[in-house]
Design a protein that fits this description.
By secondary structure, this protein is α+β, with helices and mostly antiparallel strands. Helices cover 26% and strands 23% of the residues. The protein has one domain (2-186): B-lactam Antibiotic, Isopenicillin N Synthase, Chain (Jelly Rolls), CATH 2.60.120.330. The N and C termini lie far apart (42 Å). The chain binds 2-oxoglutaric acid (AKG) and fe (ii) ion (FE2). Residues 34-137 form the Fe2OG dioxygenase domain.
């Protein structure tokens, strides 16, 4: 697990710095913040469920990360397709890793990158394991929308945030299927 996490972290940093480069924003301050950032590893274990259509493994959410890299032992991850508002299953491809944008990069890119709305479903035949590595900046490092991406045609759409702000939100709010989405609380009112 240690070696896997180390390698996934290297991959995550490479993808995140490339995504920053593609946006054409100044990487001078951002790259060291990404390289010194946090990796939270969620290991999810879903036992077989006799009536999977009546339950969910993980309710719909977006990840509080810049980027998430996920390994799944069998299919079960579903993402919301914003084109037609339906859930689409992410196929299980042995050895493949799924890369999702998280809330941080939606804020940084002023909405050019969209945080992925996703959920974990259950099945009635076999235990499923997923390992999600969530990469974010350090606890008190603020993520803010890149000034290069804000102009008269594209006003700033999000307020700045840190991982600690997210933890405070979790303590003070109801989360889960009926709860508030943290990403929505980051959107500025005039958008
Ligand atoms: O099990 C899955 O496929 C989803 C896991 C997930 O979304 C998470 O750990 O944040
Ligand atoms: Fe997730």
């Amino acid at each position: 697990m240690g070696k896997f996490s180390e390698e996934v972290m290297k991959l995550g940093i490479e993808i995140m710095t490339t995504l920053v480069e593609i946006l054409g924003i100044n990487p001078t301050n951002l790259t060291p913040m990404i390289e010194n950032g946090m990796q939270v590893v969620n290991v999810n274990c879903y036992p077989p469920c006799p009536q999977p259509e009546l339950a969910l493994g993980i309710p719909p959410h977006s990840d509080y990360s810049c980027l998430t890299i996920l390994h799944q032992s069998s299919s079960g991850l579903e993402i919301m397709d914003s084109e037609d508002n339906t859930w689409k299953s992410v196929p299980h491809i042995p050895g493949a890793l799924q890369v999702n944008i998280g809330d941080h990069f939606e804020v940084l890119s002023n909405g050019l990158y969209k945080s992925v709305w996703h959920r974990g479903t259950l099945n009635n035949s076999k235990r499923r394991i997923s390992i999600a590595s969530l990469f974010s900046l350090r606890m008190d490092d603020k993520v803010e929308t890149a000034t290069e991406l804000v102009n008269d045609q594209n006003p700033k759409k999000y307020r700045e945030t840190s991982f600690r702000d997210f933890l405070n939100f979790l303590v003070n709010n109801e989360v889960g299927p009926q709860g508030k989405s943290y990403r929505d609380t980051l959107k500025l009112k005039n958008n």
